[in-house]
Design a protein that fits this description.
With 225 residues, the chain is of the alpha/beta class. It is built from six helices and 15 strands. The chain has two domains: 132 residues, Rossmann fold (3-Layer(aba) Sandwich), CATH 3.40.50.1360; 67 residues, ACT domain (Alpha-Beta Plaits), CATH 3.30.70.260. The strands form four sheets. It has a six-stranded mixed β-sheet with strand order 2-1-3-6-14-15, sandwiched between helices. A four-stranded antiparallel β-sheet has the order 8-11-7-12. A three-stranded antiparallel β-sheet has the order 4-5-13, with helices on one face. It is globular, with a radius of gyration of 17 Å. It binds ribulose-5-phosphate. The site of ribulose-5-phosphate has 18 residues, from helix 2 and helix 4.
């Protein structure tokens, strides 16, 4: 079992019958979805799930995990998702997999956001991983200039030499800040720019962090305010 799978499996053990569960996106969340599918098959676990991307929804449907929309549920009990960076205050950079807007909508409607990572994701300061920002395609060049003015080197995300398009039909600009010393301030400045749909800073949203290690062990930390 690799470190990502170990962290994801541990998180899946917190899921109980009748919970509404948010399914994250990425190579770590992948293992959580697999684990939930296995528990449904082997234990008859009864849950309702909501997915943060088309990719995760497809995986879940293939495992007979029942998928619902926001119109059909109230709030989400637990979401299991990965992260690109985690600082010592459990603030995150997310969106490396391009699902940050849906991930943040799901996280902000979740009672307990459990973040699952391998040990390489722990950092002292956020920002070495370029911060993904989802922007409207219309006028993106101007939006990009305004992001640059916040002190980063912005780069339009591409795939196969074409701009990457999110599940919501937007672009992503990856903003290289090197170090983000005031994540809350930056979060507010970015989201105040017209054309920015959402940025990948998740501040104060996580209360449980599970780190997986190469030897298959995990460490769980709870944030108490
Ligand atoms: C997707 C995300 C992912 O959670 C993040 O990129 C981490 O991915 P991985 O688990 O593959 O390292 O935010 O938008």
């Amino acid at each position: 079992m690799n470190s990502k799978q170990a962290a994801a499996e541990k998180a899946v053990s917190f899921i109980q019958n009748d919970m509404i569960v948010g399914l994250g996106t990425g190579s770590t969340a992948y293992w959580a979805i697999e684990g939930i599918g296995r528990r449904i098959k082997e234990e008859g676990l009864r849950i309702k799930a909501i997915a943060t991307s088309k990719r995760s929804e497809e995986q879940a449907r293939g495992l007979q995990i029942p998928i619902f929309s926001f119109a059909e549920i109230d709030s989400i009990d637990v979401t299991i998702d990965g992260a690109d960076e985690v600082d010592s205050n459990m603030n995150l950079i997310k969106g490396g997999g391009g699902a940050l807007l849906r991930e943040k909508i799901v996280a902000s409607n979740t009672t307990q956001l459990i973040i699952v990572v391998d040990e390489n994701k722990r950092v002292q300061w956020l920002g070495k991983f370029p911060l993904p920002v989802e922007v409207a395609i219309f006028g993106w060049e101007k939006t990009c200039k305004k992001l640059e003015a916040l002190g980063c080197i912005p780069r339009l995300r591409t795939t196969e030499n074409q701009p990457y398009i999110t599940d919501n039909g937007n672009y992503i600009i990856d903003c290289d800040f090197k170090e983000i010393k005031q994540p809350q301030v930056l979060h507010e400045k970015m989201n105040a720019i017209v054309g920015v749909m959402e940025n990948g800073l998740f501040i104060g949203m996580t209360k449980k962090l599970i780190v997986g290690y190469e030897n298959g062990e995990t460490r769980t930390s709870d944030w108490n305010d």
